[in-house]
């Protein structure tokens, strides 16, 4: 409640003057009582002032026969993963009814630190939606990472008290958390009593108790209902995740329904969902539909998408329900079976007219984040021994195998072919000249190379190919244009998607980006990358040294299970 | 979570060192999942560090066959109403399992302002329970009240940020709230986003919408389930009240059970419950038992007594559940049918040894709060006209009737008798000399007078009798001893309960107080006060000008329905 205009709003609530807008006669979903009641909702200055048919509006919107829900909330997402601007993501997702976004700008912080976070905040300041930020908690994600910036407790302090900062973001480094490493404890203490997002796939027993003891309030990594229940018993709130890759909704919702769990401890999130998937199947509205299809009562699914999430983030006095004093964020749906979104309102205004516009100045330092020395041919050399550790790609998985193989060679150096590709990760933040080189089985590219500056979590420049010349060309091209994706064949640059904003995002517009991206992916498959292996998603995860079994960073090949680098 | 000792606690959670205490093998009530699971709870330094039989304790407490619940929470109470010290109330109620108290020191603030609030805070600092304070919002309760202190937004500011201050207390003045009167809006704005306790008996429609718009988050005045549902639909949390006088639990809980309402929007409170009733029937444990008797599932009743209330007051990261990071406040009960409390722990320590000790220095100004000029005989004169407004006492009610009667008289002045008593209210805070006089039907005292400095909300000195001499003696005696209750018969003081602390409370110990009080009440009945009329409770409410129909203040007889004083 903004008390500056309370006196005026109270007059409307008392019925002495008309409301600016009355949403008349819809079936209003009441997330408090679980009822659906035909009534009217009076709105002035973006705030709900009263519920009831007695209110009269200067403007009236007839909702007869329709259903009015509170705006949907995405409990956890990384905006950067869409490779378009945050505003452009919102443009797509708000039309699906998602009016609130709890965002962890982990990627932006890894590249540009506080400047990256400020970019996310600025870019979403004026969108017709509520975008809140959780402080990225693990930047760098591991002590030996070569990322762009360190974002520690001292850096975070400037954000404490900012009403758009709700707490500590995805605490992926559960080892430091459970182990009470001071650098992590400082961050936990800084957000004492505030929400702290968890990331604890499979964590259990002693370690899970210690993780919850640290004040981690929720988790979005559960993939089975048993895992859900162990975490719920310790008080963790569960974000049921349904994104582009990770799709955990069905087993969890079926478990909730079958065991008649109290749903107040659950909500929905997308984590990472691509724009094209949002366009095709929807966003949080898709979660609601899928939950209903799994047997959940529609109002319970809507509660998971609204008030439950608002409560987890202490936003429930303003968001997540249709009641006096709440912000007038509404989703009009045709019925509670299809949950087909027909109109969406943010602060009482129809959002359909919103089109994201590029905001970042052309001379912004965030457009100049590729700082790497030119790579010399010999930096791509990989000496071959009796046997080498090889990263084996597994179709439809982001985990890899760890093979030990005698590699093809010439003069003691690895020579890539269609069976064994070469991969290199070039440090691109601080001109350190570090280049890690390794071998990959199962990628099968021939006659060229593909490269990316999107490479979780440090976002160095990753390239994979079957010959050094094309790899060097791809590296050089991305250096020159300041980041993005590129594909080289037989010495020629065939496709490029520039991602000038931190090497992560484009503001050229989704349609432009998507056309070039689709062509690039199709071409990669033609060059031998098997179906079931998404070349750019693979590249974006092969440098993430927390996913088993083998990864590669600018310092070389890393054995995740042993938590150590493999010696040359 | 206190991060100062997190490193040590995390070692216990990880199982590397034993816990200080393990509560072994009880049936643990899980308020998150609704399950009751046999397991063990590890506690170190007053904090729950882990759940599971794998934990080992330096000390172990065997709970085999018992049930372990989180400590119970009283969602709203006025400590002063017990007439003993806050610590003494806690001593009684904590043994019933109530380990957390959300207190509104409305009476203390009306007499002594910030000093009164500080007294409540200080007195409960070291008790084996968590006592939180809501800022009294209506001091004075009405603009024309002669109370001790004005406690406005400027005075409140000093408490904002104090971790024991949770929000704005019982907003009784719903007229100013709904009407957006600036003096009230300032207080509402000061606690923006924090809990705000409501007091809205029967408020409905437009006015209720405006009241909720003002950010009032809960209500404890509902007496019917229909009233509950109107408030729940607008998002208000409902404290189901079961005190000494107001007993609203049964119809509300039966409504919840019959309509299968989601219980997350409900909790319990006592509001005002006398020590003798706590002793006889219990406190929040009594609410649980009664709710179960009304058909509620035991775990749901326990949720209402624990986590639901903790969430309403943003305490749920520390209180209201048995999970890592929570304070080790436990209630051990024999089973979930009787809910018979066998042991209670606060921060892991057994509370049974706690005995409240007087703390307030003998020379504290809070012991010198009766500041009234001697009352002259003619100040008790009440001129009689053709007819006078008479306050009619209704047995077993605190509302009164409004009669218009030709009163017995001599020389144009009212002469009390056994049918019509005289009542006087003497301003006792600022030596103003104001005395209001009126007539009461239905009290029937003869041969004396009874007086009290407990008189909601302004706590002036109230006296009722059948002759002026005994009334003057009673007034003078309470002036002399600094407040309390006294009964005079035929010119002699028969019984006195001194309430030296603000004229509201005694630190002589409940047994002493209770013995004299019982004798005084018995004597009053012998002097003619009918059964069904509690003489001191009546006196304490007759000066409260918000309860229909007629009241009396130092300014005279007040018509609550017309909201005006009665002339002459």
Blueprint of the fold:
The structure is a homodimer of 568-residue chains.
Chain A: H1 6-13, E1 19-29, E2 36-44, E3 47-51, E4 57-62, E5 67-70, E6 72-77, H2 86-94, E7 98-103, H3 106-123, E8 130-135, H4 153-156, E9 165-171, H5 174-178, H6 182-190, E10 196-198, H7 205-213, E11 218-219, H8 225-233, E12 237-241, H9 249-258, E13 266-269, H10 275-281, H11 284-293, H12 298-304, H13 307-312, E14 330-333, E15 341-346, E16 349-350, E17 388-393, E18 400-405, E19 409-410, E20 413-414, E21 420-426, E22 435-441, E23 448-452, E24 461-465, H14 468-481, E25 484-489, E26 492-498, H15 510-526, H16 535-541, E27 550-553, E28 556-559, E29 564-565
Parallel strand pairs in A: 1-4, 1-5, 6-7, 7-8, 8-9, 9-10, 10-11, 11-12, 12-13, 17-22
Antiparallel strand pairs in A: 1-2, 2-3, 5-14, 14-15, 15-16, 17-18, 19-20, 21-22, 21-24, 23-24, 23-25, 25-26, 27-28, 28-29
Helix pairs in contact in A: 11-12
């Amino acid at each position: 409640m903004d008390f500056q205009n309370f006196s005026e709003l109270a007059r409307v609530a008392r019925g002495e003057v008309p409301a600016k807008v009355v949403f008349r006669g819809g079936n209003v979903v009441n997330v408090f009582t679980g009822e659906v009641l035909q009534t009217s909702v009076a709105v002035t200055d973006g705030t709900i002032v009263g519920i009831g048919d007695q209110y009269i509006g200067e403007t009236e919107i007839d909702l007869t026969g329709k259903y009015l829900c509170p705006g949907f909330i995405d409990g956890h997402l990384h905006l950067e993963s869409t490779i378009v601007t945050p505003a452009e993501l919102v443009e797509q997702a708000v039309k699906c009814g998602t009016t609130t976004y709890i965002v962890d700008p982990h990627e932006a912080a890894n590249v540009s630190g506080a400047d990256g976070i400020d970019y996310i905040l600025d870019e979403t300041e004026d969108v017709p939606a509520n975008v809140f930020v959780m402080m990225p908690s693990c930047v760098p994600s591991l002590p030996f990472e070569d990322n762009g910036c360190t974002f520690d407790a001292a850096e975070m302090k400037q954000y404490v008290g900012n009403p758009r900062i709700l707490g500590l973001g995805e605490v992926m480094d559960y080892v430091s958390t459970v182990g009470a490493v001071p650098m992590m404890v400082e961050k936990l203490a800084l957000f004492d009593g505030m929400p702290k997002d968890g990331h604890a796939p499979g964590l259990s027993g002693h370690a899970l108790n210690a993780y919850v003891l640290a004040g981690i309030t929720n988790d979005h990594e559960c993939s089975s209902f048993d895992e859900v229940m162990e975490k719920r018993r310790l008080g963790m709130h569960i974000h049921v995740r349904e994104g582009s890759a990770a799709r955990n909704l069905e087993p969890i919702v079926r478990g909730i329904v079958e065991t008649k769990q109290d749903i107040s401890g659950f909500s929905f999130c997308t984590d990472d969902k691509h724009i094209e998937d949002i366009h095709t199947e929807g966003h949080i509205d898709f979660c609601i539909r899928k939950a209903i299809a799994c047997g959940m009562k529609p109002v319970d699914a809507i509660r998971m998408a609204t008030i439950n999430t608002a409560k987890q983030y202490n936003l429930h006095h303003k968001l997540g329900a249709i009641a006096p004093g709440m912000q007038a964020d509404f989703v009009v749906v045709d019925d509670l079976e299809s949950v087909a979104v027909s109109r969406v309102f943010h602060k009482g205004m129809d959002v359909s007219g919103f089109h994201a516009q590029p905001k970042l100045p052309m001379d912004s330092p965030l457009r100049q984040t590729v700082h790497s020395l030119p790579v010399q041919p010999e930096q791509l050399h990989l000496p071959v021994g009796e046997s080498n550790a090889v990263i084996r790609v597994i179709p439809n998985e982001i985990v890899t195998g760890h093979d030990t193989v005698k590699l093809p060679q010439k003069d003691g150096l690895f020579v890539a072919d269609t069976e064994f590709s070469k991969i290199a990760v070039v440090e691109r933040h601080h001109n350190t000249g570090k280049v890690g080189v390794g071998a990959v089985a199962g990628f099968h590219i021939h006659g060229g190379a593909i490269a990316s500056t999107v490479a979780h979590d440090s976002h160095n420049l990753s390239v994979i190919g079957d010959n050094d010349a094309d790899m060097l060309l791809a590296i050089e091209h991305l250096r020159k244009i300041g980041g993005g994706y590129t594909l080289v064949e037989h010495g020629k640059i065939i496709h490029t998607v520039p991602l000038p904003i931190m090497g992560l995002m484009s503001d050229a517009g989704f349609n432009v980006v998507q056309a070039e991206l689709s062509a690039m992916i199709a071409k990669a498959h033609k060059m031998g990358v098997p179906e079931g292996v998404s070349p750019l998603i693979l590249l974006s995860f092969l440098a993430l040294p927390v996913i088993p079994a083998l990864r590669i960073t600018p310092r070389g090949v890393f054995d995740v299970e042993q938590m150590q680098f493999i010696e040359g």
